[in-house]
Amino acid sequence: MATLAASTAAIGLIVALLNARPFTAVGDIPPVAAVALPVALVAALLYWIIRRESRLLAQLNDRMDEAAKACGLVTADAKPAAGLNGFVERYTRFMQLADAKLHELDRQTLEAQTASSLLAYKHEKAEAVLDSIPEAVLVVDHACVPTFANPKIEPLLGVSREALIGNPPQQWCTNKEVLALLMRFAQGMDAAVHTARIEYAPEAHPDRRIAVSVHPLFSPRDRATLFGMLVVFRDVTQEYTARQAGAEFVAHVAHELKTPLAALAAYSELLLDYRTLPENERVNAVNVIRDEVERTAALIGNLLSISKLDTGNLKIARHRVKVHDLLQAGYDSINRNATSKGVEIELKIPPDLGSARLDKDLFRIALDNLLSNAIKYSNAGGRVTLSAEHLAEQKMKISVKDHGIGMSAEDCAKVFDKYYRSSSKEATARSGHGLGLYLARQIVELHHGTIAVASELGKGTTFTIEFEAQQAKLEEVPQA
What we know:
CATH superfamily of the largest domain: Histidine kinase-like ATPase, C-terminal domain
CATH topology of the largest domain: Heat Shock Protein 90
Structural class: alpha+beta
Radius of gyration: 52 Å
Number of domains: 3
Strand order of the largest sheet: 2-1-5-4-3
Strand content: 15-25%
Shape: rod-shaped
Distance between the termini: 144 Å
Number of strands: 12
CATH class of the largest domain: Alpha Beta
CATH architecture of the largest domain: 2-Layer Sandwich
């Protein structure tokens, strides 16, 4: 406004001077008028420029206000002055607010990155835990679409993890029972509140048993929120086989006990008429009763010993034992049973066999089980050989060889397993409970020895025990 007034005054002065006297040439213009005219023109130009820049400053102020409102930078400060000073003041405050906002955004970004890193760590930690689980694990969402699968799922289902993740079960589940179980949990919350479990046999491997259990994944803070389900696949073939073997074992033991009890009842009734019974029949009845009692006692002894093994209560008391006397006692004990079945027992042991540190009673159980097994699977007229010899490095070997029905290579690999019995017709036709050889191996291993088997179908079987013998200098007995 001051510039406009000065320009107006200068123009008025020039007009007055020009009207004071007439002039005919440029040289006649007064000097004051010649100077004032350019000044007035410059002042007018400056006024126009200032007006234009003032409008630009006003527009910039408006845009800064809009930007401040959009970014949440509006404050309750007093309205700044107009003009260039006001613009500078407003710009300075705007930059201060913007700088504070940037610092706040940096802090929030850092917190978000920290939270994201922590979440990623927890996610990877959870996946690492699921990967380390020995069972095959599958995590599915509320629609039963897999979101995670550990590596153990692939060999069990025969499907790659890439084919599982993100695909509904109808595309990768071939078993109808498993599919029905999964789809049941996909139907809604009511069906997913309890854990369910099934067992199935894969079509490609009918001899295997797979257990599938589904566990709902509820939010720890809100039990009404269901994240999905944890599906666990576990190979329970061994457990299933053990259950089947246990059931068969109970049946075999019942039969093993029933047979001697029936014989005891029959011969005890026969002895009631001992006054009219011939002498030879009385002796035979007494011998049969004794044999059946010993047979029953051996079975019960095996059961008790295995029970102690399973509970860890079977302890050995090792003492110096003359191996020759131990084998001779075993031969004498089993010979009568062999003779009654038409099997010959042959004893091949050197008189100077020496001694070893053994639990005599336990080792006799192992030896009797091997001899009884050899007699059982020998045919009438067959022969069983009990032999022993010294080996190098203070080792001793005991062998029990028969010429009976023999075993296949598959049976040889499993013959020492608990409850195992061969499935061949000749083997199943003979009584047994699948515990004698298992117990024999456990007893030998308790003595830090080894037991092995070699057999061929139709040609017989040889069981071999190797253990450490006692050094000769320890066998010397001081003379009185």
